[in-house]
Amino acid sequence: MFGWICGKTQRYAPLLAFGAMLLPLSLAIMAWTHASLWIGTVLIGISYSLVPAVLWPFCRVIVSAERFGLALGLITMTQNAGIAGANLMAGALNDRFAASAANPAGYQPMMLFFCLASFAGAVFAGLLWRSVGSGRHVPEEGLAASAGGVSP
Fold it and tell me: What pLDDT, in 10s, does the model give residues 64-75?
C-alpha cells in the first residue's frame, strides 16, 4: 500500500520524513505514557513499512544511474551497521541499569537511546526533504539528471 502511495504521489521526501517522525513518536508513547502498547506498536509498524517503501524508490530519483548500485550498497551497509551498533548499545544499557522483569525501570535508558536515535533519523529525513523541496520528483527527471548526473 505504501509503495503504491509513493508511486502514485511521487512525493518521496515528505513521505519519508513523515514515516521517520512516526518512530520517535511511537517510542515516546510506549516509554513515557500509559497508553495502550497497541498504539505504539501500530505506529512502529507504519513507520517500518513506510520508510523502506519510500527510501528505495527515492534513491532511484536522487542518485545517478551510474552510482545507483553503490548507493543501494551503502544504504544497506549503513542500515546493518546501525542495527548491529544499536543492538550492542541496547544490551549494554540494559546490563548497566539491570533491566529485567523485576526492574522494568531499567529499560528506560534503552528506550531513551532508541528515541533519541530515531529522532536523529527524523531530523535527517526532514533535512533531506528541505534540500530537495516538497515538489514531485519524477525518476526520469530526478535530481541526478538535473544536477548533470552528479550524485550526492
Answer: 999 999 999 999
What are 126's three cell numbers?
Answer: 526532514
Q: Specify the DSSP class assigned to residue 134.
A: S
The owner of cell 548491529 is: 84
Separation CA 13–CA 56 (nearest Å): 12
Three-state SS letters, 45-87: HHHHHHHHHHHHHHHHHHCCHHHHHHHHHHHHHHHHHHHHHHH
Grid cell in block for residue 138: 519524477
pTM metric for this prediction: 0.78
Residues 135-147 have pLDDT tens digits of 555 544 444 454 5
User: Hey, what's the cell of 32?
Assistant: 513515557
Q: Let me know: does 151 contact 67? Beta carbons within 8 Å.
A: yes
Question: What is the distance in angstroms between the CA of the first residue and the CA of the last residue of the chain?
Answer: 29
